[in-house]
Design a protein that fits this description.
278 residues, alpha/beta, Rossmann fold, six-stranded parallel beta sheet, 10 helices, 11 strands, 16% strand
Amino acid sequence: MAQLIDGKRISQQIKDELKAEVESLKNQGVRVCLAVIQVGSDPASTVYVNNKKKACAYIGIESEAYELPEEVSEEELLSLVERLNQTEHVNGILVQLPLPAHIDEDKVIKTICADKDVDGFHPQSVGRLWIGEKGFLSCTPAGIIQLLKRSGIELDGKECVIVGRSNIVGKPMAALLLRENATVTIAHSHTKNLKEITNRADVLIVAIGKRQFIGPEYVKEGAVVIDVGMHRDENNKLCGDVLFSEVEKKASAITPVPGGVGPMTIAMLMNNCVETVR
């Protein structure tokens, strides 16, 4: 039976470490403050924003919430971001995505000051990541690295395959694995012979966005499998991109859904907030 990589436990460990660090900073007179902007009242976005607020409260990070109506203009949103860029006590700015169709997400991301971009989405943050400079790391990939390291999984010299090439997971994941001296392949929707490629992987990271798409035939015996997907199955239960019940029998270690990668994303967002004052 595969080792279960427990994202809840590891994320709690990280949050407790950050809590102690923030307490120490407060004793030195240093505050950490995150501004969170939500446009509209999408239920999933509201859940994410509330989870971020709870994490801030637990760790001791101050949070300021800006809840804007769905019909807010792009100009008004950009003006708020610019104002927060100039607000000295605000260390990090997060605009909850997705945004309504009439607002250009790319423009909003580029407007956030790169030194307050705790999501790690700004082009400067992406550039720093790829050339190995210090900067904010994309939260989900950074969380996956922590899951692997804190579970005692060696990456140096290992063959890693990422299924998915998004700007949020696939591409930054490749950069972080290269930093760990892994050999990296990115597969995607146009990849031919996908099973052949995934069967080479010592570590398989799946962020394909297709419910339970990866079955045991895609997985090498003894591989480590990280499932980034989040879906509902036919019984309305949460599941991932990996057919967990079957792949678990073949893998040496695997993340569950829920309770695997998900909790790590917020833990690493909190880490980025603290990074602003380190």
